Amino acid sequence: MEIKRVLSGIQPTGRLHLGNLIGAIENWVKLQAEFDCYFFIADLHALTSSYEDVKNLKEDINNAAIDLLSSGLDPQKCVIFKQSDLPEHAELHFLFSMITPLSWLERVPTYKSKIEELTGQDLGTYGFLGYPVLQAADILMYKAALVPVGQDQLPHIELTREIARRFNSYYKEIFPLPKDLLTRFPSLPGLDGRKMSKSYNNTIAISDAPEVIEKKVSTMITDPARVKKSDKGHPEVCSVYEFYKVFARERSALVAEECRAARRGCVTCKKELAEILIGYLAPIHKKRKEFEKNPEQIEGILAAGTGQAKKIAAQTLKEAKQAMGLI
Question: What are the residues facing 205 on neighbouring strands?
Fold first, then answer.
């Protein structure tokens, strides 16, 4: 039986955080044992919203690679590469942009929501509007059968299928229609109670040191109606409790019970959560230190991944250009 190909990427806009870990990376680690997986650092995508400030981009790319490898991605089981190392991505994106109606891009739900999220940034650029076309090129380049996504990314996969259908109908049946591999994961709030996002500067990074984690957790928003420890709590509105449900599920019911009965204070809850997170990340941090000592190893892994990915990317681009009469 043919092993299905999976494709996914992650943006290196700042340090990867716990939301990235439970929402994507841990799922990728499971998928690499079952599928033909291609995972990439989406540095071109990072430019669509962070084009004004790139002084830390190289460092962020390197840290993303270390985080992925330290969290369990194995170059012996999957292909890991950097998007910009393959110019085929940009060229296929350009070809697709010729046939993609503007109206398709304007109606993508995440377009408006991202603009609202990234207030203060000038996102009135072609690159930002057209990033779903680049995403389609990423996926269709490798003729991926499955794309692991969250619920909010489903419109992007449908747009990718629409672009593939349009290309196939105009020129030649080259691109199979990818299916979404819906990843259902618990929502993880940020330090301020909003969605954990680098845009909001409310994250706990995968690479944060124990003392940093302790400090960040101590600032987390809890039940706003609970002023004193003797006040009965409402864990369902508490950000700290959401973390217990993800990282200490076996304790979450007891924590909720003690909170509602005012037998557990918020300070105690935060201190315990910090210890839980530090313990959860300890194996990742241990591996991270080893990778940090050997930057040549990281470069070698990405270079090898680029070589493997290029075999497919070059062939797909050639087929697309031939179909369009360019060669």
Answer: 17
